Structure to design on (588 residues):
């Protein structure tokens, strides 16, 4: 029993009041849950969810081209414009999606062997070192890492210097879609390594032994046991690599070419022109894509792997 | 069980991927000491001159100061709100509990540009605020909360509820239970969460571009100069500094998590560290 009568009778009044309050909260736990949850949830709903909802609503409005004022009449005009054929918007969305998919695939391929090595082969100490080596780049400035690649890919940068040393021809990758692919794969790679590592680490050794006892060779075990069990981790990582690429506009700005516009760049420029309704409608595309993606990811068990 | 050849090739692959992760960071750190104005490779002359220039650059200083203030306020807000939400979700079962934990993670799962745009139109158009330090703080606190929340939830899930019941049985009131039982259990998670939240806020670009107006945080200072291709030697020094300063809180957070008395054993530690750290930086 949390509070008994003799405890209430004893002690100074402040202590008695606190005990009474504690007893109250103990008897009605929902009161405590409400008290704890209401402030953060209210702040979150008003600031974040409210803003998102308002944004979504405004995508059905338009901007008067003369007065630049937002007209509050409901229309699908913004969405119709995005999906009409003569416009560049579908092409931009397509490029964004392609790069996001390519980056996700690249990161999965780069990360899986590393994660496997960390989780199942490395010793305790090596594992801890590798873990920090993956974690620190994740947390060091995104912008600085993009900038680093800007200098590496530049004509007189480190890449061409290295290629020269190997006797290979120069590459002019700066300001191309290739550059975006490399840089995105680079900056989001740790986000893939960590969940895959976590998923691989959870596979009990006995599963692999059982597979070997049943006569499966390495590749068969990989395909039939390890990959299916690691899949939720890969999907969890892909949520990050995909979503982060989809919503980015800094990397296209810094290393992309003149035709490397992403959804984010377009949205950003429409905000600059104070055409929030159209920007909102265009931003609804990545929102819808991520919504579907998250639903699929949930079915594949990615949320348990997070 | 794994063949020798497989082992070796996995080790080699891992070494290459780690090199891929680190070479750009090392290069950009070296450029801070570049004696030339031109950003070519290899670097031919070395100097620490640009550190002095950067330090006396008023824009860079103002940006640093703004970033520090925003980071501190956003982190403090996140610590309070994140801990409250985590305690409710970890301790109680109620209708919509899953929805709450899903909602709180949204700012990280959704593209940053959506958060940025939504806040931009809500703060400036709907609420009619003008850009200030506080508008940046609102944006940062939104996703910093998630980090603290994740850390504290992970810790609470590993803490037996019987500790709290025992404290109550021994006659402690709510405050005493918090102070003498919960606080020692949570403090390292809070320190780690706070450090990571600060590091995240200190680096954030995308949401900040939408909530800052004409103000410059340190990342915005870098971005503006990169876009215009101006003052690159100063940017190099600032970049060096930003990387160095974010490494410190992350390394500290790792250490704090490792030394915690609540979690023992390698696997659990690493898992908790992953749960705590698995946060998009944007």
């Amino acid at each position: 029993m949390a509070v008994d009568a003799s405890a209430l009778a004893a002690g100074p009044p402040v202590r008695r009041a606190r005990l009474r309050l504690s007893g109250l909260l103990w008897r009605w736990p929902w009161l405590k849950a409400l008290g704890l949850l209401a402030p953060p949830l209210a702040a979150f709903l008003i600031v974040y969810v409210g803003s998102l909802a308002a944004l979504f609503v405004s995508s059905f409005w338009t901007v008067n081209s003369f007065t630049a004022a937002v007209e509050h009449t409901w229309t699908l005009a913004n969405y119709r414009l995005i999906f009409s054929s003569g416009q560049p918007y579908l092409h931009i969305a397509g490029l964004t999606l392609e790069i996001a998919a390519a980056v996700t695939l690249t990161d999965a391929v780069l990360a899986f062997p590393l994660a496997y090595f960390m989780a199942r082969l490395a010793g305790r100490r090596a594992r801890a070192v590798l873990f920090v080596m993956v974690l620190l780049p994740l947390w060091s400035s995104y912008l600085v890492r993009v900038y680093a690649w800007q200098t590496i890919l530049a004509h007189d940068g480190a890449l061409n210097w290295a290629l020269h040393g190997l006797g290979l021809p120069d590459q002019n990758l700066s300001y191309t879609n290739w550059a975006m692919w490399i840089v995105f794969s680079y900056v989001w790679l740790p986000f893939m390594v960590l969940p895959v590592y976590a998923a691989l680490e959870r596979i009990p050794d006995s599963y692999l032994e059982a597979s070997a006892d049943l006569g499966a060779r390495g590749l068969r075990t990989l395909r039939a046991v390890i990959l299916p069990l690691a899949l939720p981790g890969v999907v969890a990582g892909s949520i990050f690599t995909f979503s982060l690429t989809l919503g980015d506009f800094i990397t296209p700005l810094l290393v992309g070419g003149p035709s490397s516009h992403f959804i984010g760049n377009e949205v950003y420029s429409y905000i600059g022109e104070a055409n929030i309704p159209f920007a909102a409608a265009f931003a609804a595309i990545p929102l819808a894509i991520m919504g579907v993606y998250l639903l699929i990811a949930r079915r594949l068990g990615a949320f348990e792997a997070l | 069980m794994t063949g020798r050849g497989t082992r070796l090739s996995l080790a080699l692959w891992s070494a290459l991927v780690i090199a891929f992760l680190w070479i750009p960071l090392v290069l950009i750190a070296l450029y801070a000491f570049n004696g030339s104005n031109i950003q070519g490779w290899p670097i031919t002359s070395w100097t620490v001159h640009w550190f002095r220039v950067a330090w006396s650059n008023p824009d860079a200083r103002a940006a640093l100061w703004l970033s520090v203030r925003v980071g501190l306020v956003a982190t403090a807000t996140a610590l309070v709100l994140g801990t409250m939400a985590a305690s409710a979700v970890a301790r109680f079962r109620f209708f919509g509990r899953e929805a709450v934990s899903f909602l709180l993670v949204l700012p990280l799962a959704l593209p940053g540009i959506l958060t940025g745009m939504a806040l931009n139109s809500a703060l400036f158009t709907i609420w009619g605020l003008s850009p200030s330090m506080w508008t940046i703080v609102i944006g940062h606190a939104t996703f910093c909360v998630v980090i603290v929340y994740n850390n504290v939830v992970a810790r609470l899930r590993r803490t037996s509820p019987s500790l709290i019941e025992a404290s109550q049985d021994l006659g402690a009131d709510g405050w005493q239970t918090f102070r003498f039982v919960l606080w020692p259990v949570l403090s390292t998670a809070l320190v780690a969460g706070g450090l990571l939240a600060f590091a995240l806020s200190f680096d954030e670009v995308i949401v900040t571009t939408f909530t800052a107006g004409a103000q410059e945080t340190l990342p915005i200072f870098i971005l503006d100069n990169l876009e215009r291709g101006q003052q690159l030697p100063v940017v190099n020094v600032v970049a060096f500094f930003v990387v160095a300063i974010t490494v410190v809180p992350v390394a500290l957070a790792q250490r704090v998590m490792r030394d915690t008395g609540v979690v023992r054993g390698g696997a659990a530690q690493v898992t908790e560290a992953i749960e705590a750290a698995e946060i998009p930086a944007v």
